[in-house]
Every structure is written in structure tokens, then in C-alpha cells.
Amino acid sequence: DTAVSQTPKYLVTQMGNDKSIKCEQNLGHDTMYWYKQDSKKFLKIMFSYNNKELIINETVPNRFSPKSPDKAHLNLHINSLELGDSAVYFCASKGQGYNSPLHFGNGTRLTVT
Amino acid sequence: AQSVTQLDSQVPVFEEAPVELRCNYSSSVSVYLFWYVQYPNQGLQLLLKYLSGSTLVKGINGFEAEFNKSQTSFHLRKPSVHISDTAEYFCAVSDLSYGGATNKLIFGTGTLLAVQP
Predict the structure, then answer these.
(1) N or C, which end of chain B has less CB nearby within 10 Å?
(2) β-strands B19-21, B73-78: how paired?
């Protein structure tokens, strides 16, 4: 059973399009995240939700809009895609407590042409 | 604010040799430290974590790390590596500034461990 699953695994699209990435976790965690990994493998947090409430928004352009219909799902919608949005996007979830580790999905590789 | 520095972007090593991947952190408060591994085209998996207590932490796949508060380091070690250990390794520190149950991990830039036969 996949703990944190993301779809699609690969996404190739043209500039200006709108696309969504979906994430689901079956770990019963309250907190979910989106991280972006650039071409140099650098990981940067984008958003965090706790029980469907936005907690962290790290200076991400307004074109990125997360949505959490319930605490098991955190989707990422991106409007007007740009070349610089090409990256691997990772969803993660975390249990309660500061010391709980993050559990990551396998990533969505977004390529904007 | 917390930060993490991984000094080596790539570490080549021969199979069965020992390896150390370096990680230094910066924080003005108590920290929780983690090492994650990323195999090609996969997500990140937790290798080990330091929360409190013993400064020597053992993780999966024979890895261990030592927390050194005076040197603000959390280096990862393995006495004998295998080809299958080839992967990207990330050190991370918990940013506790948001409080409550939510916190974020701040990652280092990663170290590629390249094991050669």
C-alpha cells in the first residue's frame, strides 16, 4: 500500500497552460506539504496544510494554488505555467509532534515547454 | 532561523569502503535533525533522525549519524558501502517557528554518494 501517492508521475505541458497535481495519503496524518525540487536537487517548501487549514505559504507566486478538500488530500493547481516552473514536485505528510518525520510521495516531474 | 549546509555535492567512493557525508546546521534553539535518502526517480525516505538523548543515532541500511552540539554537526557514516547505496542524501533540520503540530523541514543541498565497483 502506497502511503503518499501523487498523480501524475510525469506531466509535460506548454507555457500558459493550467495543470493540477493530486496527492493523497493513507497514513492518517493531519499535516501535508508541497515541496519543489529544482534541477540542482534543491528542495524548498511551498505550502503546508494542517487539517485542511493553510499554515505555511512560502512566497510562492499566486499562480500556484493548493487545495485540501480533506486532511487526506492536498492538490496543487498551477495557472499560466512558465518555463521556470519545470521541476519535480513532492507531496509529503507528517504525523503529530515536532519530531515526526515527513513521508514523501514519489514526485511529479513537471516539464514546461 | 535554521539552516543546513552540506559541504560536499558529490562523494565518490569504492564499494566496501567507509564513507562520511558531512552536515552542519545553524540554529539558535534546540533542533531535530534528519537524514533522508533519495534513490533515482523516487521520493525521499527517512534514514535516521536525532531528537534527543544519545548522540549516536542508528538508521536503516547500516547508516549511523553522530550529533555534535559543539560543532553543530550531524555527519552521516557507513563503515562499508554497497553499489546499492548510490543515491542523493539530504540532511534536514526542523524549523519549529510555526508552533503547534506543523513544522517544516529545511533541507541541505544534498550530497550524491557515488559508489564505484
Answers:
(1) C
(2) antiparallel
Interface of B with A (CB under 8 A): 32, 34, 36, 38, 41-46, 49, 51, 88, 90, 94, 96, 98, 100-107, 109-110
C-alpha–C-alpha distance, residues A75 and A32, integer Å: 10
Residue from the list B46, B96, B107 with its beta carbon closest to the beta carbon of A43 = B107
Q: Can the peptide bond before residue A8 be classed as cis, meaning omega within 30 degrees of 0?
A: yes
The answer to whether A39 faces chain B, any CB pair under 8 Å, is no
pLDDT tens column, A1-42: 679 999 999 999 999 999 999 999 999 998 999 999 999 889
Residues of chain B whose pLDDT is less than 70? 96-103
Strand extents, DSSP E, A38-84: 43-50, 53-57, 64-70, 73-78
